[in-house]
Amino acid sequence: MSDQALSEFRYDPFSDAAMRDPQSFYRVMREEHPAYYIAEYDTWVFTRFEDVWNGYMDREHFSEAEGMLFTREQLLIHHRGEPPEPVLEPVKAMFLFLDPPVHTQHRQATAAPFLKGSIARREAEITALVRERLALLLPRGEFDLNADFASHVAVTMVCRVLGIEPDDPEALARAVNLTVGVPPDGPGVAEGRALIYSLLLETVKRRRAGKGPESPVIDSLLTRDTIGRPLSDEEIAIDLNGILVGGTETLPKIVAGCLLELAQRPDQLAEVRAAFPGSVVPAFEEALRYNAPAQWFGRTVKKPVTLGGIDLEPGQRVILNIASANRDRREFDSPDEFRWNRKVRRLLSFGVGPHFCIGIHLARLEGQVMLREFLRAVKSFAVHPERGHWPVSQFQIGWTSLPVTIDELA
How many angstroms separate the Cα of 177 from the Cα of each of 35, 101, 237, 333, 386? Predict the structure, then answer.
């Protein structure tokens, strides 16, 4: 940014400039405006690690009753006082967006397949899937790290965990990426959402009839009471959408981004290979910090609270910026540098507090296996960001398309 731009600094998460180059805004905000007030929205944006961490951990003063992915239209309507109660008749949002105790009870009902031990037992299955996919892709000589490789693995695994049988995993992954990567009313968004919802609703109806593959998640939601009454098929489908989208859309961006960062740093790639295969764990963790696709989540203030030196009133909204916090020099040394062997003490990429990502263990294992098997199979490769696609979005950023050329197999 120019000196004039700095003196006239303005930030709006929904502006085209902020969506295309968010980190240039975040650097200024962390140093000069760590708590940035947007009067148009009556909303505070927090960008330093400690403030963001504390905001997510504070379930007493912050609510998700209005959801956590605020739209511009939503923020334009100001309100002070008690935040609205979540709508449970019928449930109109994913349970991820609700507060305890409903959120806690619901999470307990769906958590078992995503626990660390349950996921660890799937390593052989994930490895076989990754090797099978690479065996198909590598002979081509060029393919897409996200669309052809990582998205296929991610959507296949989350569907297996949920007991979903898509006819076309690639089409499902494209639909997911489309619905989060363009404006809500953009071309193809309605069709993508309809495809996803139809698949989920059909799956729930089959399980209620005792048909289709077993699904601990769906079966638990069909039989357990989390809101004082049974859930409808439509409500369960809405909730599954959060798990499916979260498990399909974010991880491929991180995997593709990690391989790009390594390809652009031959010295680090050589170090990763020298310390292989244990090196894939810290390399993936650094990619989580450096390339985490989720920019921010929102909260509504429930009770008077001070965060980052700012007194907040009930009803106000806050934006807790993960992508900025993960580049905060107060938490990370030389944060704008990618270092494959960085020792990370705390990380916000999966969230923290009561709403941390339920798929954290699945994502970590999948990502590590994909990196390990790709580097094991490929001796030399080149990534082509100039031919890739980085969609504009106020929420999820990252490469939805990133071509790779295979120069030499191992």
Answer: 31, 31, 18, 33, 20
Q: Which amino acid is at 319?
A: I
Long-range contacts, 103-110 (Cβ 8 Å, 24+): 103/64, 103/354, 103/355, 104/354, 105/226, 106/226, 106/227, 106/239, 107/358, 109/220, 109/221, 109/224, 109/226, 110/217, 110/220, 110/221, 110/243, 110/358
Q: Give the helix/strand (H/E) hosting 120.
A: helix 116-120
Q: How far apart are CA 49 and CA 345, in angstroms?
A: 12
Name the residue range of residue 103's domain: 3-409
pLDDT in tens, 48-72: 999 999 999 999 999 988 888 899 9
Q: How far apart are CA 35 and CA 407, in angstroms?
A: 47
User: Can you tell me the distance from the alpha carbon of 95 to that of 10, in angstroms, rounded to the nearest whole number?
Assistant: 34
- Alpha carbon distance 164, 144 (integer Å): 24
- Written in H, E and C, the secondary structure of 62-97 is EECCCCCCCCHHHHHCCCCCCCCCCCECCECCCHHH
Instruction: Kindly report the backbone phi and psi dihedral angles of residue 320, in degrees, each rounded to the nearest multiple of 5, phi listed first.
Output: -105, 110
pLDDT in tens, 345-392: 999 998 888 778 888 999 999 999 999 999 999 999 999 999 999 888
> How many domains does the chain fold into?
1
DSSP per-residue codes, 149-196: IIHHHHHHHHHHHHT---S-HHHHHHHHHHHHHS-TTSTTHHHHHHHH
* Residue 71's CATH number: 1.10.630.10
In single-letter form, the type of residue at position 388 comes to G
Angstrom distance (rounded) from CA 110 to CA 220: 7
The closest of 392, 364, 377 to 143, measured between CA atoms, is 377
SS3 249: helix
